[in-house]
Design a protein that fits this description.
There is one protein chain. The chain has 411 residues and is mainly alpha-helical. The chain has a domain at 1-119: Serine Threonine Protein Phosphatase 5, Tetratricopeptide repeat, CATH 1.25.40. The chain is 74% helix and 0% strand. The protein is flat.
Length: 411
C-alpha cells in the first residue's frame, strides 16, 4: 500500500494532541529493557511523521503495537492513519480501545466523537459528550456539540436543555440565543423562539444589537410590521448605527419601497462609520436598485466622489466606478478609472480586460490594444487571453509573422 499517497491529511499528534512519548496511563507492564525499546520506536515513529515520512512512521507504530497493543498513544496514532486511509471501521475500533485505556483523555474522546459522528453513530457521540461534560464542564464547545447532535437525532428538547446549561455557566451570548431560536423554530414554537430573544432584550434594554437582531428575524419571518417596531426602537438608541441602516435597506426592499431603500443606501455609503468593504457591497446594491426602478444611474456618481474623498487609496472604488461609467456610455471616463486600477493592481487581469472591452470594438484603436495586452503579458505572463488579443491586433495590422509568433508564445 502506498501510504505516502493517502496520509497527507493525517492528524499530527505532536502538534494537536498532548501525547506522552515515554509513558502510558494503562497498558502492558513491560520490563525496563522492553520499555526503553518501546519508547525509542514510538519516538522515532512520531519524529518520522513530523518529517512527512508517513510509511516509515506507520511501520514503526505497527512495531510498537506488536510490543504493546494496549498503549493508548499507539492506538490513537494508528487509528488516525487508518481513518486517513478510509478504513473507518478499523479506525473506530482503535479509537475506542484508546479511550478505554485512557478514559479521562479529553482529546482522545473528541477524536472518537468526531469519527463516530462521521459514521452517524449519534447515540455514541451523545454518550461521549455527556461523559466529557461531567469532567470538563468549562469546555464551552461541548455544550454546542451536544446540542447539535441532539438536534440531529430529533431530541430537540434535550438540545435546548444543553444550551440552557451552557447559558447558566457562561451567561447570555448571541450564539446561544440564536441556536435556541433555531431549535424552537424547528419545534414549530415561533412564539417561544421570539420570547427567547425578547428575554435577552429585557436584560439589555440599551443594547442595539439585540433589537436589530429581533427586527431582522421578524423580517425573515415575513412579519414586517413587528420588524419595523424593533428598528424604530434601535433608532432611538443610535440613528447612525451602520447595522441599522443595513436593516432598513433590507426592510424597504422587502416591502417593495425601492425609493426609500435607495435613500437609506445613500445614507450608508456616505457614513463615515461604515467599513469600506461594506460600502462597496452597498454600492452594487444601490446601482442594481437604480436600474430596477429605472432611475438615472448618474445619481450614483456623487456617491463615488464621496467614497474617493473618504478612501482615496482604495482602487477597488475606481474599478467599480469604471463599470458604472461604462453603463453611462462614458468610455473615456471609464478608461481613466481602469487605468488607475491597473496601475495599483498590475497583477490583476480584470483591469486590463475592462480596458480591452472598451477598445476592441474600435478598429482604429489597434495600437491601444497592443499597449494594453503587452502590459498585461508583462505582469501576468501566464494569462492566455492577452496573447490572443495581441495576436488578433497584429493580424489586423497585417503583421502576420508577429501574430503567429505571439500565438505560439501563448500556447
Amino acid at each position: 500500500m502506498n501510504y505516502n499517497k493517502y496520509i497527507s491529511g493525517i492528524i499530527v499528534s505532536l502538534v494537536l494532541f498532548p501525547v506522552s512519548l515515554f509513558s502510558q496511563v494503562e497498558g502492558l507492564i513491560l520490563d525496563e529493557t522492553s520499555r526503553r525499546k518501546f519508547d525509542y520506536f514510538f519516538y522515532e515513529a512520531v519524529n518520522a511523521k513530523t518529517l512527512g515520512k508517513y510509511a516509515e512512521s506507520f511501520d514503526l507504530l505497527q512495531h510498537c503495537y506488536s510490543m504493546d497493543s494496549t498503549n493508548a498513544s499507539v492506538l490513537i496514532e494508528l487509528g488516525a492513519y487508518y481513518s486517513s486511509l478510509e478504513e473507518k471501521n478499523k479506525a473506530l475500533d482503535f479509537f475506542r480501545r484508546a479511550v478505554k485505556q485512557d478514559p479521562a483523555n479529553y482529546y482522545y474522546n473528541m477524536i472518537l466523537a468526531g469519527l463516530s459522528k462521521e459514521l452517524d453513530l449519534k447515540k455514541e457521540v451523545i454518550e461521549i459528550y455527556n461523559y466529557l461534560l461531567k469532567t470538563y464542564p468549562e469546555k464551552v464547545e461541548l455544550y454546542f456539540e451536544l446540542a447539535n447532535v441532539y438536534g440531529d437525532n430529533g431530541e430537540l428538547d434535550k438540545a435546548i436543555q444543553s444550551l440552557d446549561s451552557l447559558q447558566k455557566y457562561t451567561g447570555v451570548s448571541d450564539a446561544i440565543t440564536l441556536n435556541k431560536f433555531r431549535l424552537y423554530n424547528m419545534m414549530d414554537k415561533k412564539d417561544r423562539a421570539f420570547e427567547e430573544i425578547q428575554s435577552v432584550i429585557d436584560k439589555n434594554p440599551d443594547n442595539i444589537r439585540y433589537k436589530l437582531l429581533m427586527g431582522d428575524l421578524y423580517l425573515q419571518d415575513n412579519q414586517a410590521d413587528k420588524a419595523l417596531d424593533y428598528y424604530q426602537q434601535a433608532k432611538q438608541i443610535d440613528p447612525d448605527e451602520p447595522s441599522l441602516i443595513l436593516s432598513m435597506v433590507n426592510y424597504y426592499e422587502k416591502t417593495n419601497n425601492k425609493p426609500a431603500a435607495v435613500e437609506e443606501l445613500q445614507k450608508a455609503i456616505t457614513s463615515s462609520k461604515m467599513e469600506v468593504e461594506t460600502k462597496l457591497q452597498l454600492l452594487a446594491r444601490y446601482i442594481t436598485l437604480l436600474r430596477q426602478s429605472q432611475q438615472d444611474i448618474k445619481t450614483a456618481n456623487p456617491l463615488f466622489q464621496s467614497m474617493f474623498e473618504q478612501h482615496p487609496n482604495n482602487t477597488r472604488i475606481n474599478m467599480m466606478y469604471g463599470d458604472v461609467l461604462l453603463l453611462q456610455e462614458d468610455k473615456k471616463g471609464a478608461m481613466e478609472q481602469f487605468e488607475i486600477y491597473t496601475k495599483d493592481n498590475p497583477a490583476d487581469p480584470a483591469g486590463y480586460e475592462q480596458m480591452l472591452r472598451i477598445v476592441l470594438p474600435d478598429t482604429q484603436a489597434l495600437e491601444k490594444v497592443v499597449e494594453i495586452t503587452l502590459t498585461g503579458i508583462e505582469h501576468i505572463p501566464t494569462a492566455p487571453q492577452f496573447y490572443f488579443y495581441l495576436g488578433l491586433a497584429k493580424f489586423q495590422q497585417k503583421k502576420y509573422g508577429e501574430a503567429l509568433s505571439i500565438y505560439e508564445q501563448g500556447l
